Amino acid sequence: MGSKLIVHSLLRAILIVAFHVLALPSLFAQLSTPDHLAEPGFWPTRNVTSREEYVGSQVCASCHAGKVAAQKNTSMAKTAAHAGDADILRATAKLNFNVGQFAYEIRSEGSKSVYTVSDGTHSLSFPLVWAFGTGRVGQSYLFKKDDGKFYEARVTYFDTLKNLHFTPGRELDAPKDLQEAMERKVPAEEIERCFACHTTAATMGTHFDEQKLMLGVTCEACHGPGAKHVAAAQMANVAGTPDAARGTIFNAAQLDPPDTVDFCGACHATFWDVKITEAKGVATAKSQPYRLEQSKCWGNGDARLTCPACHDPHQQLVTEAAAYDRFCVNCHAAGMKKTDDHAGAVCQVATKECSSCHMPKVNVPEMHYAFTDHRIRVVRAGGAYPE
Predict the structure, then answer these.
(1) Which DSSP category does 104 fall into?
(2) How far apart are alpha carbons 233 and 279 in whole angstroms?
(3) Contacts of 80 by beta carbon, 8 Å cutoff, 6+ apart
(4) Alpha helix stretches (DSSP H) within the chain
(5) How many H helices and E strands in the chain?
(6) In this structure, are strands 123-132 and 80-82 parallel, antiparallel, or unpaired?
(7) Quick one: 47 exposed, middle or buried, by C-beta within 10 A (0-12, 13-18, 19+)?
(8) Cβ neighbours of residue 195 under 8 Å, at least 6 residues apart?
(9) What is the full per-residue pLDDT of the chain (387 aa) written as tens digits?
(10) How many Cβ atoms from other residues are within 10 Å of residue 385's Cβ?
(11) What is the pTM of this model?
(12) 129 membership: H or E segment, kind and range
């Protein structure tokens, strides 16, 4: 593990030097998620020492009823489920996918979903345990064997297909046997990272506990453990000084623009998270913070261009392009002068649905889905995907 950290640090240092040579000073404010986690204080996906530090969203609702009620209906709040409760599986009795000699199938009945792979002669079957993702784009699955370890199913449900296909990055041209065709054993540290972004309070200290975690991304996944804040708020109410509780919970709204984008990047990949993995091509469109920070208008960071400037994390994602026009005119409105802060030219082509042209949809083949590219730009017909 120590050697991995050394390699990570060296690679990051080399990349920083390289970008300095290329004169991209605006990127120095960004950090990788491991670097943020090494800093003091709360950061998304950070482990804490005790489950008692968390209170749960129901307690948060006693003061923030509207936000909690709206947030629980978002995809983030539903991004993890026990397989028996997964809507996709409960609604579909049979999902299947065939490739070569191998036949993949998930059969569901009631609260039980069984994953089976056959090579035409033999087959292996295991009940699914966890479902990650709501199915709006896709949903992937974990199961366990007698050894108690987690295994990732080789196939994922994709909404555009209404069926199964290879899990992104897990396609095999020629599996050596039925077992390899069926699964990938997931290392413990990777399991912790997966659950850190799909659930809340899954790991206490160094102990991962799937029995006591909270499903999905809840209030405390982004604001940090709330027990101290609740206690302070109760005392403040008794004393008649409600403002005294402020500062006892993490508020991402107080971050500067680069850190705000990195905050969301803890699960959606920061600029440096992507660079360190050396990801290339259209697959990087999945990493919205990375693409956003490559926009020319990002500069050294602009509060009008952060993730929450356009997307309220307490509300379900809006997918209609016209809904974002009001944010575009914050910089590109008629009458703004070049002397205005980050004023941009007014589009000569259209006056609405700006993002449909300047943030084009990019098809990511392994995801069977077209993602909105958050690298804001003037798109030229036939132009290559800008790296």
Answers:
(1) E
(2) 44
(3) 130, 131, 132, 195, 198, 199, 215, 216
(4) 2-21, 33-38, 57-60, 65-71, 87-91, 178-182, 188-198, 219-223, 227-239, 257-268, 271-277, 288-292, 307-310, 325-328, 355-358
(5) 15, 16
(6) antiparallel
(7) middle
(8) 80, 202, 203, 208, 210, 213
(9) 444 444 455 555 444 444 444 434 445 568 999 999 999 999 999 998 999 999 999 999 999 999 999 999 999 999 999 999 999 999 999 999 999 999 999 999 999 999 999 999 999 999 999 999 999 999 999 999 999 999 999 999 999 999 999 999 999 988 999 999 999 999 999 999 999 999 999 999 889 999 999 999 999 999 999 999 999 999 998 888 877 888 899 999 999 999 999 999 999 999 999 999 999 999 999 999 999 999 988 988 999 999 999 999 999 999 999 999 999 988 887 766 665 666 677 888 888 999 999 999 999 999 999 999 999 999 988 899 999
(10) 13
(11) 0.89
(12) strand 123-132
Q: How many CB atoms lie within 10 A of CB 112?
A: 12
CA separation for the pair 344, 359 (Å, rounded): 16
| Residue written as token pair 């992507």 | 274
Tokens of 371: 């993602």
Strands (E) in 15-101, as ranges, are 80-82, 94-99
Do residues 48 and 286 make contact, with C-beta atoms less than 8 angstroms apart? no
Strands (E), 196-241: 199-200, 203-204, 207-208, 214-215
Distance (Å, whole) CA 236 – CA 254: 22
Q: Which amino acid makes up residue 292?
A: L
- Are the beta carbons of 287 and 273 closer than 8 angstroms? yes
Cα(374)–Cα(362) distance, rounded to whole angstroms?
10
Two tokens, residue 129: 């345990």
The Cα–Cα gap between 185 and 151 comes to 4
Contact 358, 378 (CB under 8 A): yes
Nearest to 139 by CA among 155, 127, 150: 155
How far apart CA 202 and CA 214 sit, in angstroms, is 7
Closest CA to 258 of 29, 16, 12, 23: 29
309 three-state secondary structure: helix
- The Cα 374–Cα 365 span in angstroms is 18
